[in-house]
Amino acid sequence: MELKITARREGRLSSFLLGELRMSAGLMNRLKWGDGIRVNGSCQRTNYPVKPGDVITVALEEETPEYPAEDGPLAVLYEDDWLLAVDKPAGMLIHPSRAKNEGTLANFVAGYYQKTGQSCAFHPMTRLDRDTFGVVLLAKNAHIHTLLQQSDCRKTYCALTFGSPANDAGTIDAPIARKPLPSLLREVRDDGKPSVTEYRVLARREGIGVLELRPITGRTHQLRVHCAYMGFPILGDPQYGTEASMALSRELGYPHQMLCAGAVELTHPVTGQHLVIQSGLRGRIC
């Protein structure tokens, strides 16, 4: 994959990489020792004096992942030269681990890139718990991932909850901390990190709330912890649910938490286009 621009001013090559191409200093330093940075087709160092009309190209190569590429189910919601958005089903891990090196979203995305002849890597902008389903936005290389992290990416979730808030809309502002080891769970605690969630009630159905949730911060398990803390745990959530919420979940046949990453809204980091990418699975909730 290449980045390409035609210079409209004079300056050191490094100033174009950091400025017009918005490349991070770390990536530029990694690339400058290879032959991936060229001016008018010739390899150049970052102190090269660029003139108006010179064509600057940067080859963005990604390392082959240690985990295997697999041909598996992958629902593509959006794709261009820079981004890939897919619908992750419940029950699928995002990343391989020591315990599970196959059958994850990363394996299937690597297989998809291999099958379609793309030299890309797995850089998730959104990370979902194993049993949360919906949109996962991916950058195809480290440079685009850095640009995405600098942009305003709005994530909206849908959830079915046991009960619902008294107000039709509001904000949950409650700090979240990790429970004492060996637990991997989180809890609301005064010494936790600032955590903010906006909510809106879409419907109330006989003791069940249909909620739209927007995380302002991005803490681990944030939406699940906040909903449980406020007294309306997400249905199907065995870790943060109550006995009553899990009993209703079993009655309704919910084998996992009913939480969907329903939409991602962003400004494209390269084209500037406004994108709204919606999950095809959100109809299961709202």
End-to-end C-alpha gap: 38 Å
Radius of gyration: 22 Å
The chain-level structural class is alpha+beta
Shape field:
elongated
Q: Share of helix among residues?
A: 10-25%
Query: How many beta strands in the DSSP annotation?
Result: 18
Order of helices and strands: EEHHEEEEEEHEEHEEEEEEHHEE
Q: Provide the β-strand percentage band.
A: 25-35%
Number of helical stretches of at least 4 residues: 6
Stretches with pLDDT under 50, minimum 5 residues: none
Name the average pLDDT.
93
Largest sheet: 10 strands, mixed
What does this structure look like?
The chain is built from 6 helices and 18 strands. It is α+β, with helices and mostly antiparallel strands. Strands 7, 8, 9, 10, 11, 12, 15, 16, 17 and 18 form a 10-stranded mixed sheet that branches. It has a 4-stranded antiparallel sheet with strand order 1-6-3-4, with no helix packed on it. Strands 2-5 form a two-stranded antiparallel ribbon. β9 and β10 (133-139) form a beta hairpin. The chain is elongated and about 70 Å long.
